[in-house]
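Collaborator request, handled under Task 6.
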Amino acid sequence: MFRGPDGWIDAVRLAAVPFAVLEAATEGYAEGEEPLAWLLVASLALAAVALPLAGRSGRPAWLGAGALVFDTAFLSAWAVLYAAEPGTPARELLVLAAVEAGLRYGPRGALWALAALPALALFELRLSNALDAPFDVGHAVFPAGLYGLVGLVVGALSEERRRAGSRAPPAAPPPSA
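Structure tokens returned to the collaborator:
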């Protein structure tokens, strides 16, 4: 059912929905933030159903790029929403966008980690305000660099797998009955 990078990315997005629902249902929010959490959950659930359906008759390149943009925007908004909670691992979710970019675009997809910088900066700003601590730009730059390295490794492995698959001999026809 889930084949290739698009299929697995779709599966991960779908599997994330119950976790997002559980998190949104059990979290304590600052005033006015709970509706945003539920809006994000609804958008994730909608994308988890709509993106695979949109790609049923083939995956145009724009659909994969659009899915990456959606996933990055969702992960960024989710991380920033939960940033004011000390000790939250929400910022680490952004590595998933770098992994997805590596799967989709090979090693050059690692550059997509730069798309996480605005969310990482907002995350650090919200957390520093919540803790009454100074803003530390390194807390945004270091994770982005790390995500880029992860995207580079995933991209290189994905590219190598694609190359190996293109060199594979054609599959033998099934035996006749």
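The cover message to the collaborator said: "The helical segments are 4-26, 34-54, 61-81, 95-105, 117-131, 138-167. The chain has a mean pLDDT of 90. Please let us know whether this matches your experimental observations."
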